[in-house]
Predict the structure of Deferrochelatase.
Amino acid sequence: MSGCPFGGDQQAPAGTHSGASAAPAGTSDGDNRRLSRRGLLGLAGVGGAGAVAGIAAGLLGHDALAAAAAPPAADDSVIPFFGDRQAGITTAAQDRLHMAAFDVTTDNRAALIELLKDWTAAAEAMTAGRTTGTTGAVDGPYDAPPEDTGEALDLNAGRLTITFGFGASLFEKDGKARFGLDGKRPDALIDLPHFPGDALEPARTGGDIVVQACADDPQVAVHAIRNLARIGFGKARVRWSQLGFGRTSSTSRAQQTARNLFGFKDGTNNLKAEDTALLDEHVWAGAGSRAGEAWMEGGSYLVSRRIRMHIEIWDRTSLREQEGLIGRTKGEGAPLSGGKEFTAPDFSVKGNDGEPLIAMDAHVRLAHADQNDGVRMLRRGYNYTDGSDGLGHLDAGLFFIAFVKDPRTHYVPMQMTMAKEDVLALEYLKHTGSGLFAVPPGVSQGGFVGEGLFD
Ligand SMILES: C=CC1=C(C)c2cc3[nH]c(cc4nc(cc5[nH]c(cc1n2)c(C)c5CCC(=O)O)C(CCC(=O)O)=C4C)c(C)c3C=C
Ligand SMILES: [Fe+2]
């Protein structure tokens, strides 16, 4: 959006963007509040187009009034925030990620609840394409910082989803329960074990609360995390954050399979939103065995791993070896046992040399459900590059994200096998960050994220 929210007809008051501390001549704070397009959309949602037209009457020209009176068009850039499940899990994976883990700095339970309520309100607004707060980016008092940082003003909602999860350290720290949450830490929210080869950096690991913002526009995703961080000031601070620029998983059969930075199709045999029975079996958490963990029913567990990929070494590896390490062809993404991309791999097929066509230590063999007690996961990772390491190497890789029913059965054993046997992992990957978070079920209108935890 331009400085003028309703097109080129109205000029922003002189000095609006100059950083001048005083309101422009002839305007009071109230006069200077203009109804932004986003604010308008928000009002349309609450009171309908007629109400919007009435409120706007004193502020808008004739054309703008006519436009405002028209019923709002269905906006396919909006993914509803409220629902039985949190969005951002089975939602068709967006192109961009900004994930942040926060440490809660207040000790006060009421302040934590207030933070979650404020975050819920802001998340609902931003996912609907509106600004945060009641006055947004440009309609508040001239002498106060705006309630919204403003960099998404011209943009649509971008299919933004904001997904919240709670880390073990929210429940207890140094052996002491926090926020009166004794007995509420789910048994599945374990401290992940050390895996062979782990090179985890504390500043990229853990966190009390994780927020996953996914959108088709990077600015929308960054805007979301930035505003939540701003709202959290004094109660929570960012521990780590990660940008991702290319989805490495499809989570719907309607999506084309994307590629990771090794150049391979990633997500071919992922669980998809359409696999509802498999999602019940492998992704959605149950009520647990204790009353204290029942609040997680219908939620899931988010595993995040920042996996650096040694792409310079990979780029000097033959195509034969690359395909052998993955167990699929690079072009089509077909299993080396034959067929096309979505043909099921046949791990028993052998070549003329008597060796299996999909090697015993190939990534897809070791990760396949057949080798892992039948368990599957919903992967939702992103490619990342974070500059270079000063030694002439890109700090690039895959920010692995998976949603699972129970990490004890659905992540730890598989990761342990890979850390020990997967040549891809042993020679080309380094895990530099890690997190495990309990993702509560969805939020209903009038509620707040994680509400069940505080019942
Ligand atoms: C512990 C879980 C997994 C980690 C960590 C992981 C890292 C990782 N994977 C690739 C590339 C590919 N993975 C593929 C398949 C695949 N990977 C996992 C799990 C982990 N991957 C699973 C469960 C599967 C599916 C296996 C199956 O059922 O066939 C593929 C093939 C295409 C696909 O099905 O997605 C590729 C390619 C990288 C580069 C990586 C770390 C950087
Ligand atoms: Fe993988």
User: Anything to note?
Assistant: The chain has a mean pLDDT of 87. Residues 37-69 form one domain.
